[in-house]
């Protein structure tokens, strides 16, 4: 995939956690935030949640159609309410979760290498 094929924009949210139960709780809480606060914004594509197999990390990759869509969301969504929702989610966990992001965890897709087409399709 080339940049022209996908001009998407991504935000990566990275947390360390103290076990699989906290992983599941954090993912459910953050998915609820996406459902209630984020997915209705223009340009929002999806949120994908990844749990490390060792039970210590959670990654949330939020996909936007463009950087402009993300910036519009960031400017128009009530940041204080969003932060309060995140803090409530963290406070409601049975275990501990710690953010690992530094700076603005935002990215543009520059290149993707996909699988080879089937032998008969080449």
TrEMBL record:
GO MF entries: monooxygenase activity
Keywords assigned by UniProt, alphabetized: Monooxygenase, Oxidoreductase
InterPro entries (UniProt xref): ABM_dom (IPR007138), Dimeric_a/b-barrel (IPR011008)
Domain spans labelled ABM: 22-78
Protein's name according to its UniProt entry: Antibiotic biosynthesis monooxygenase
Gene source species: Conexibacter stalactiti
Lineage, top ranks: Bacteria, Bacillati, Actinomycetota, Thermoleophilia, Solirubrobacterales
């Amino acid at each position: 995939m080339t940049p022209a094929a996908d001009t998407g924009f991504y935000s990566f949210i990275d947390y360390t956690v103290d076990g699989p139960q906290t992983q599941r709780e954090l993912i459910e809480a953050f998915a609820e935030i996406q459902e209630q606060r984020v997915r209705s914004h223009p340009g929002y594509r999806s949120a994908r949640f990844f749990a490390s197999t060792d039970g210590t990390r959670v990654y949330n990759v939020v996909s936007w159609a463009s950087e402009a869509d993300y910036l519009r969301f960031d400017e128009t969504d009530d940041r204080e309410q969003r932060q309060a929702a995140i803090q409530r989610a963290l406070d409601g966990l049975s275990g501990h979760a710690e953010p690992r992001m530094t700076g603005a965890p935002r990215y543009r897709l520059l290149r993707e290498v996909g699988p080879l087409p089937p032998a008969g399709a080449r």
